Amino acid sequence: MQLEQINKVAMIGAGTMGAGIGLCFALAGYDVALYDVSREPLEQAKHRIESSLSAFLEEDLLGSGQAEAAQKRIITTTSMVRAMDKTQFALEAVPEGMDLKRMVFKNLEDLCTPDTILATNTSGLSITRIQDSCSRPDRVCGMHWVNPPELVPLVEVIKGGHTSDATARLVYDLAGKVGKKPVMLNREVPGFGVNRLQFAIVREALNLVEQGVMSPEDVDRTMRYGPGFRWSWQGPLETADLGGLDVFHKIASYLFEDLSDAKKPPAFFSKIVEGGRLGIKTGRGFFDYDNMDRDEILNKRDRYFIKQWKTIQGLKDS
Fold it and tell me: Is 279 helix (H, G, I), strand (E, B) or coil?
């Protein structure tokens, strides 16, 4: 399979990730079959796509003609047979569960041609174990998008134990063609790249709160206006380069020993979750959202991401 041969994409799973990813492919000119097991998630996906397009139009990211064309390129279906018909690339985004994903991939292989590329959007499950359910594992690859996928530029391409170099390169190039900033993981590790980096920070953030050093509000303020402010422009290693590696090495020499090396979530965090405080979905997590509109919160986040992405595009293309 060559990149130019791909013109139809099957999106297997129409949840938050599936809808957003499907929109990205449609905006890039691909025909998209958005599949789920029932009509309800498909209707929710259509609503999400319409909302995202409205935001793009209001922020002048695209014109009305482009939005209409993208919508016309997306079909929704509860038939996997229809979704996979004449498909050259299929991306799975069903709920995280190894048994479910292995079953889905086995079904996909039964419905596709031998050269169809299959990818999984898992955020941490073993690509190799998913591949083991397939008769053509060399054509299976990890393609991890970050929520919200229509706004966050990063896409991780992960080689499983059987993924061919050609398959990985094709998926990498495909991510670039739909306007994303791909990175390649030459071998899979638990959590891949983005979640290993993200949860290293989460672990230290939880430790600071648990030790009473900082409040949750000040932890987030520190990240938002400190490292996070810089990291959208330059990553942590470039930050070290610009600050002086001798300085960063000296700090690392005494600070690493004192950083959290916890092997499980702290007790206070477990207590919050066990108490049903799950964040915005339940109205309370580290912060209180009881008197706030969920859609309004997410819309405000998305508008900020759009402005941030426009700024990055205008300043630096790398």
Answer: strand
